[in-house]
Fold each of these.
Amino acid sequence: MDKQDNQLRRTLGFGSAIAIVIGTIIGSGIFFKQASVLASAENSTLAIAAWIFGGIITLAAGLTIAEIGAQMPYTGGLYVYLEKLYGRTLGFLAGWMQVIVYGPAIIAAVAGFTAILVCNFLGISTTWRIPIALLLIILVGLINFFDNQVGAAFSIITTIGKMIPIFAIIIFGLFWGQNDALNQTIGEVHQTGGNFGVAVLATLFAYDGWILIANLGGEMKNPQKVLPKVIILGITAVLLIYALITIGIFRFIPANLINKLGENTTAYLATKAFGQIGGKLLTLGIIISMLGTLNGKIITFPRIVYAMAKRQDLPFSRQLAYLTPKGKSPVVATISIIALAGMMLTCFDPDRLSDLCVFTIYCFYVLAFFGIFKLRKENPVRPFSTPLYPFVPILAIAGGLFVIVSELLNDPAGVVLFIGIVVVGLPVFAWVRRKNKQVIVQELDEN
């Protein structure tokens, strides 16, 4: 096969890219994390503040990565950034973390949350959650076996579709809600160790996914200009939407009831506000919204597998780097991510999984944030410069460290497990490099 024929196509424009950013971020988190954020914050004012603070941390992170990404507009995102900043080993671990831990885990978490809503919509027992979640992952994965424009079109459709339930919740809550959104205190706390830090950590799962568009740098038209714009505009839009949704929910549902409803808060609001039929339609809109998020994850993570396989950085790299002849889709990489997500889904609760996802990715985000200072010294001329430098990168770093420490204190056992899976990447990397050297020596001997 000609080398040029085995390349991803640069077909994604600004519209597709911004739809993927917003569609990937807005999904299960804002609908399912309201109760857990409130339970940790213990009152509605701090809960709203947690959503806003989480958005500010994310925006600072996005502005920092936008400068880095504009200088490295290649397929692979964080994997490429850390390799170019710190060398092959750290770059490999960033990629390994995303394809073995973070990617499958976040896909599993989103699918698990979506399946809960599907069970409510169909009126069936939540014991069907795992089979339904597995089916959703497979169906969305099949969409991404075709040309990348098919997945991008699905993102655009679901992003437009998800605006209907979002604006319905915002408008109904703000104008027909009877409660004061501020200063509501819950009487019963379900969890121990809850605090503002844990509340912010819970919101960051809802904001996460913004960096995944960087994995499509090799398929984007004019990525040096488009990438910073879509990251910044996408995160800003999501921050405003999340703050308004949260205020709308608190206006319509008392804090104590949200605390009791837990993951069923959104389904309750939909039925209470719009009746049985209207509630069903609104719930369906939210399900479509979450499918768009799932699609965004399944579009982007196989591109990391593909980028690593092209570099011969993974076992079975030849197979994982395969692209379909017509659509240039990394189908084997997609299948591998789907399989790992299915394993994660059967082993973990979605809520706990979502927090561990955020912790794992932020360990590597912080390293990337520090990289902006290195690049500033090396490259005085840049396609994009982070505004308010160095304050914005410092805020991003502080926010990242805040996430890491909060999760270490909140779930040390889960942290040790996920770090252990990441560290396993070191002997895998050593084995792959040794094998690649043997292949090179063999080819030289044959010639």
Amino acid sequence: MENIEFNVGIDKLSFFVPNYFVDMTDLALARAVDPAKFHIGIGQDEMAVNPATQDIITFATSAAAQILSDEDKKQVDMVIVATESSVDESKAAAVVVHGLLGIQPFARSIEMKEACYAATAGLVLARDYVTLHQEKKVLVIATDIAKYGLNSGGEPTQGAGAVALLVTANPSILKLNADNVALTQDIYDFWRPTGQAYPSVDGKFSNSVYINAFSQVWDEYCRRYDATFSEFSAIAFHTPYTKMGKKALLPKIESENETIQKHLMDQFEKGIVYNRRVGNLYTGSLYLSLISLLENSELLTAGDKIGLFSYGSGTVAEFFSAQLVPGYEKHLRKAEHEALLNQRVRLSIEAYEAMFESKIDLNHNDSFDDPTLYSISEIKENHRLYRTK
């Protein structure tokens, strides 16, 4: 099967995380765990934490606001929000984000769900839509809050934040190839029934399902496109914790020569620099890793082919590729992203636990004084009102 060629892809991209984090050494000591279990065992150094006045809508709006110009807002024809942390069972978060951003009114706004995978479905929809409407743009946002409960097994793999991707014709950063291979399996490795506060997780089983899913979609990708690892300059992975992608990649490249193995593993490390400091973004984890790779690798050049592995428990997995556009490095936001991470407030464990337990009661009218640019300012008549600039 031949790869279909067209020039549509990611023109702009950015991420946002809340202004608070927990150091994983602090968390390990508080939980009577060897810090090496967190730093080395799962590969996490910091974990993003959000106050109750910030949610998936404020994250999504903040991430997108960094990259959208006034002209973009006039041309965006669709807003897609991917999340598994929805704040409403009916109204799409994208509708609220659309309004907060001031995007032109004649746009379609939808929310998509399939665990951590949905942003990839949104990206494919955006690519195909722009292919048919070359003058239009589509905003895809992955936004989530990963919470498992205090003192739970999943606690060190929590996180919060959003990634925004602007999809256009003649993109400035990445051209998306039409070589996607998807896999669906009805498996309960991670799930959260409606009304259940935290997910149910079969941790070891989920790890094995992830590894097996990558193996299956990679083998099928190779069968369809006669592909080899040697043609990829890097592969970015969905990253619930940073060791996960490594566990999937290593068995598949063990038969490759040492040069290919070392190159792909070195690039993998560049793709988890930001993830180590943020934690799990669910739908945004793959795309945070992509940003980390682009902004931290010193080996990538225009024309390089990058593989992307997307995974959502339950399960849907997908492998696809993209190619770097000449001059892509001029459109990255490394300085801004590093400043965002470096300026956050390190929480004590007591402050983190208090923030974790803090909730907003939608049935009680209230106002809040969170100075963050986008935050919940008021609860009125059972709905959230947001502060904007």
Amino acid sequence: MDVLAKLEILTDAAKYDAACTSSGVRRGFRQGYIGNTTSSIAGCCHTFSADGRCVTLLKVLMSNCCVYDCAYCVNRRSNDTRRAAFTPQELADLTINFYRRNYIEGLFLSSGVLRNPDYTMEQMIRAIRILREEYRFNGYIHAKAIPGAAPELVEQLGLLADRLSCNIELPSETGLRTLAPEKTKAAVLAPMRQIQVRSIQNKEELVKYRHTPKFAPAGQSTQMIVGATPDSDLHILRLTQGLYDRYQLKRVFFSAYVPVVESALLPSKETKPPLLREHRLYQADWLLRFYGFRAEELLDEQAPSFDPRLDPKCCWALRHPEFFPVEVNRADYEALLRVPGLGVVSARRILTARRTGPLRLENLPKLGVVMKRAQYFLTANGRMADGLRFTQDSLLRNLIAVEQSLLPQPEMRQLSLFDDAV
């Protein structure tokens, strides 16, 4: 099989992995190297540099051959699909040639488990080492640590890649035993813990010794599949909160289950991917990371799933009328963040602007406040918008109407240069 045929197979097989959208690392020009992380062929995905620019990555598997038989995975060993595997040299050559042609600016590398976890990681490490040491590639690389691989291999991978990730796959240990019995929770969490501990040690070393090699400077992330098992949004959000608290992950990614295989253990192939549910979980994840919310505030045993009609912040606001209205001229930063229609930037702008004098309602849109939502939950100088009248029922209807135009589009797919021109 030629390299182009392998590329087509292995970029297509990589499209279900969502855990690559934020690099969070800066590495500029380095003498004698090519590429940087501050600035596609098949399998294009995108990340964002620290200065906000969109960076195109080659998203590909080292191999889609796999010794595991996970029921939800298109690459499981029992599935009848075309198989391919790059050699380390082939993958390094492809990456550097695509970079030189300005198709990509970095690499996102994952793999099925070829032979065993250690062998797979060794192949990935060799490919990345060729890029770093022979081709002196200084661009962004995100690599997947394979659960079950030896700790010394995780160490080597972390010294070569900018970001590491280890997929938790399913939200519960019960789901993992049912759909992926050859994998264990302990095998998944072990490299997560190693990466966390090693990253802390590396930061301490860098303070003492300037030239210490950096270990996964962009941190680590993980991904879980949503909709393949009956786990509730509450369970998923609690797990997400726990991962942030225990392992200091940069991101937890959610991937709506796409029914690509027929199994009695899974939703039927006619089931639509739960994209809206995925969207709500990402919104809730944002609230956990940037708005000071906790999982138990957003959902509870009486309401274990998000209302698909409303974003999680509005749902929380409707359940806590005692917290509102918030007075923008007196509220602290944390209280402002809880107002629907206010974000991190607009809350900071309010704090800055009110130093020069009291704010009025007509000032707020200029500060980035989305008044279609916020008008129901705040006051300025004790006054709400003129003529604003609403009940709890009419407020719910109004917020649902605002939300409709913001829902994600149903058709989303990964870019590929193998597609027909449009």
Amino acid sequence: MKGHQARELLKKHKEGTLTSEEQALLETWYLTLAKSRRSAPLAEDELNTALDEIWQALPIGDSKEANDHNGMRKRRRWIMSIAATILIVCALSIYFYNNKAGREQPAISSVDDFLPGDNRAILTLADGEKITLNDAKIGTLAKEGQTAITKTKEGEIVYRSQPGAKAGSTVKEALSYNILSTPKAGQYQVQLPDGTHVWLNALSSIRFPSAFAENERIVKITGEVYFEVAKVNKGTKRIPFKVISGDQTIEVLGTRFNVISYDDEETIETTLLEGSIKINIGRDKGRGILLKPGQQIQVNQGSKNRKSAAVSPYTIRGVDTQSIVSWKDGYFRFDNTGLAELMRQISRWYDIEVVYEAPVKDYEFVGKLERSAKLSKVLKILELGGVQFRVEENKLIVTE
């Protein structure tokens, strides 16, 4: 960071007008100064001392957080975690791209640009007919039983019972199932027959009936899907909503949550934003695991990641929920995200194969980037942190 840029951020810090991204940039700058004092890596006690000096140097001595011992300790742990790796703050790039005066852009190899993903999906009806939704016209697309399937002007697919239709299918009626699936570089939204809103990320799918049964609502998903579940009653009893993903079943009454269930990820991640859900894993259908808003459960995908019987099949942690669901609002959000995980996101969204020529380094990324950005901009941001690429046809090759 250049001197005038640092002074500008320090001035904004004193005025209390820094954004969270700018705050991260300022702290990262201090960390970089500390790490550059020596050519050899700092020992843990030396790093502790350096971080103490950095913290005292920051002009926040009269801030509430600085005087809050717990808040200071929490932030210091965060700084320690990112200082242990090569840190790159994506917000740094966004900040400088939006403030062009007086700066130089890093040089990268010229590549054929790749456009970001957009709204595209395939709807497979019960009779096997496939509808390419991005090409379909606005209006009624099909009818199944007493349900009309409509594409709105916003591009969402909506399932609505026609006038005079009974609410829910009877036990004797056979359910007819539809599948909505997105390819790489695709995303889509659907409103299910019960009014539940669903967002699908790239390379994802949801299987659901065109009309739910009277006593339960069950869907099956792959990939990454966000739910806002409608509350539906039968008399005074709430009709449960269940989501099957991999080896787990999520039981819901009415809530907002996100599920990541890709085959190439080591875990299935379920994050609760609002309400309450219960997770049942594998054949263990006992009392289940209850999540609270702000919690995420990571379930190992089968036994392939289970090193021993003593290893727990799941972990629960608190997370920044807005970071988890930012994809549906048009952003990549990185919160100490490793390079391999970040590359998998890029591969899905830009429909490009990622290949590694060298071992994956222990990078961590923090920040936010619009999903509407072209691939070239994303690569420029990553190259600021020392990651090197080249593009050959439809392959993104990580060279360093």
